[in-house]
C-alpha cells in the first residue's frame, strides 16, 4: 500500500465578508447588504506541498478586493460575483477558476424615509458562481420564505401497513419554509428582475391549485418557473412540511371545525426535488458544496 499523498481538490479564500453598500448620491439613500465569500481554484500545489506561497493570493487580499469592488455600484449579487471571478482569473494566470457566493438581506424604508430602513424581506437571497476555466455555472436562489395555505391541500392515497396511523385528509393546512436554488444557462441576465419574477412565480404556483402533496406543489412551482424563465435550466427545492395538527378540544366539549391547530416544530416531513429542463446540459459539479438539496 502506497503512503504517497496526492493533493486533489483544493480551494481557499475569505468567507463571509459582510459588505453593506450605501448609495448616497442624493438625500434618498439606497442600501445593499451582502455576505460575500471568495474562494480561488487553480495551481496552488506549491503552497500545500512545498510551503511556497508564490501563488497564494492572500485571503486578506481577496477580502480587500470585495470591499474595493463594493466602492463601485453593485447592481446585483450575481454581477458582483462575476466581476470578482473576472478579476481574479485575469489578474493571476494560475487562478483558473473558483467559487464565489453571496447572500443578500432585504431592507425596506421606514415610512418611506430617505435614510431609515428595517430588515424586511423574510427570505435570504443567495447566489453562487462556480468558474472552471471558460465554464461558468451560476446558481441563484433563496431560503426561509415561509408560506402557508389554510385549505386546498390534502394527503390521501398513500399505502397503509401495520405502522400507518395517519388519517387521510382532503382539507389540511400546508406550510413550509421554501428553500430553492435555480441554475441559469447564461450570465447575460437581468438578475434582479429575474429574481423578483421567479420568487413571484413560485408564490403564485403555491396558491393556484389543490395540492395532493407537497411533492406535487414543488413540481408545479418548478414547472411554472421553467415555463416562464428560459434563462433557467434547473431548479431545486428543499421544503419542510411544517405540520399543523388539529387540536382536540373535546376535553372541554368544544368542537373544532378546522380552526385551532397545534403547530409542531419537529419532527417535520422534508420534501426535496430537482427539476431539469428536458434536453438541458447538466452541471452536477457546480452543485457540490451547496448543502441541503438533493
Ligand atoms: O405532502 C405530504 N407529503 C408526504 O410525503 C407526507 N407524508 C406525510 O405523513 N404527510 C405528508 N404530506
From TrEMBL:
<keyword id="KW-0659">Purine metabolism</keyword>
<dbReference type="GO" id="GO:0004846">
    <property type="term" value="F:urate oxidase activity"/>
</dbReference>
<feature type="binding site">
    <location>
        <position position="155"/>
    </location>
    <ligand>
        <name>urate</name>
    </ligand>
</feature>
<dbReference type="Pfam" id="PF01014">
    <property type="entry name" value="Uricase"/>
</dbReference>
<keyword id="KW-0560">Oxidoreductase</keyword>
<dbReference type="GO" id="GO:0019628">
    <property type="term" value="P:urate catabolic process"/>
</dbReference>
<feature type="binding site">
    <location>
        <position position="155"/>
    </location>
    <ligand>
        <name>5-hydroxyisourate</name>
    </ligand>
</feature>
<feature type="binding site">
    <location>
        <position position="241"/>
    </location>
    <ligand>
        <name>urate</name>
    </ligand>
</feature>
<feature type="binding site">
    <location>
        <position position="60"/>
    </location>
    <ligand>
        <name>5-hydroxyisourate</name>
    </ligand>
</feature>
<dbReference type="InterPro" id="IPR002042">
    <property type="entry name" value="Uricase"/>
</dbReference>
<comment type="function">
    <text>Catalyzes the oxidation of uric acid to 5-hydroxyisourate, which is further processed to form (S)-allantoin.</text>
</comment>
<feature type="binding site">
    <location>
        <position position="215"/>
    </location>
    <ligand>
        <name>urate</name>
    </ligand>
</feature>
<feature type="binding site">
    <location>
        <position position="60"/>
    </location>
    <ligand>
        <name>urate</name>
    </ligand>
</feature>
<feature type="active site" description="Charge relay system">
    <location>
        <position position="243"/>
    </location>
</feature>
<feature type="binding site">
    <location>
        <position position="241"/>
    </location>
    <ligand>
        <name>5-hydroxyisourate</name>
    </ligand>
</feature>
<feature type="binding site">
    <location>
        <position position="172"/>
    </location>
    <ligand>
        <name>5-hydroxyisourate</name>
    </ligand>
</feature>
<feature type="binding site">
    <location>
        <position position="215"/>
    </location>
    <ligand>
        <name>5-hydroxyisourate</name>
    </ligand>
</feature>
<comment type="pathway">
    <text>Purine metabolism; urate degradation; (S)-allantoin from urate: step 1/3.</text>
</comment>
<feature type="active site" description="Charge relay system">
    <location>
        <position position="59"/>
    </location>
</feature>
<protein>
    <recommendedName>
        <fullName>Uricase</fullName>
        <ecNumber>1.7.3.3</ecNumber>
    </recommendedName>
</protein>
<feature type="binding site">
    <location>
        <position position="241"/>
    </location>
    <ligand>
        <name>O2</name>
    </ligand>
</feature>
<feature type="active site" description="Charge relay system">
    <location>
        <position position="14"/>
    </location>
</feature>
<feature type="binding site">
    <location>
        <position position="172"/>
    </location>
    <ligand>
        <name>urate</name>
    </ligand>
</feature>
<dbReference type="GO" id="GO:0006144">
    <property type="term" value="P:purine nucleobase metabolic process"/>
</dbReference>
<comment type="similarity">
    <text>Belongs to the uricase family.</text>
</comment>
<feature type="binding site">
    <location>
        <position position="59"/>
    </location>
    <ligand>
        <name>urate</name>
    </ligand>
</feature>
Amino acid at each position: 500500500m502506497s503512503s504517497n499523498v496526492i493533493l486533489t481538490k483544493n480551494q481557499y479564500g475569505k468567507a463571509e465578508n459582510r459588505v453593506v453598500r450605501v448609495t448616497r448620491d442624493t438625500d434618498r439613500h439606497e442600501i445593499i447588504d451582502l455576505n460575500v465569500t471568495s474562494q480561488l481554484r487553480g495551481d496552488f500545489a506549491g503552497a500545500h506541498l512545498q510551503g511556497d506561497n508564490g501563488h497564494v493570493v492572500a485571503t486578506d487580499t481577496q477580502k480587500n478586493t470585495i470591499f474595493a469592488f463594493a466602492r463601485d455600484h453593485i447592481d446585483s449579487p450575481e454581477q458582483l460575483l462575476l466581476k470578482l471571478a473576472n478579476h481574479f482569473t485575469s489578474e493571476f494566470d494560475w487562478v483558473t477558476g473558483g467559487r464565489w457566493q453571496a447572500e443578500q438581506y432585504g431592507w425596506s424604508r421606514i415610512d418611506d424615509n430617505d435614510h431609515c430602513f428595517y430588515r424586511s424581506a423574510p427570505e435570504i437571497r443567495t447566489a453562487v458562481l462556480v468558474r472552471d476555466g471558460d465554464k461558468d455555472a451560476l446558481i441563484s436562489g433563496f431560503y426561509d420564505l415561509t408560506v402557508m395555505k389554510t385549505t386546498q391541500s390534502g394527503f390521501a392515497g398513500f399505502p397503509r401497513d401495520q405502522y400507518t396511523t395517519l388519517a387521510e385528509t382532503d382539507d389540511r393546512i400546508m406550510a413550509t419554509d421554501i428553500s430553492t436554488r435555480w441554475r441559469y444557462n447564461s450570465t447575460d441576465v437581468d438578475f434582479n428582475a429575474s429574481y423578483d419574477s421567479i420568487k413571484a412565480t413560485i408564490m403564485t404556483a403555491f396558491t393556484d391549485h389543490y395540492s395532493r402533496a407537497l411533492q406535487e406543489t414543488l413540481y408545479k412551482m418548478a414547472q411554472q418557473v421553467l415555463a416562464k424563465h428560459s434563462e433557467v435550466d434547473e431548479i431545486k427545492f428543499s421544503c419542510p412540511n411544517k405540520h399543523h395538527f388539529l387540536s382536540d378540544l373535546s376535553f372541554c366539549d368544544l368542537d373544532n371545525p378546522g380552526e385551532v391547530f397545534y403547530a409542531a416544530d419537529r419532527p417535520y416531513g422534508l420534501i426535496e426535488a430537482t427539476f431539469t429542463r428536458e434536453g438541458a446540459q447538466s452541471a452536477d459539479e457546480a452543485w457540490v458544496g451547496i448543502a441541503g438539496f438533493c
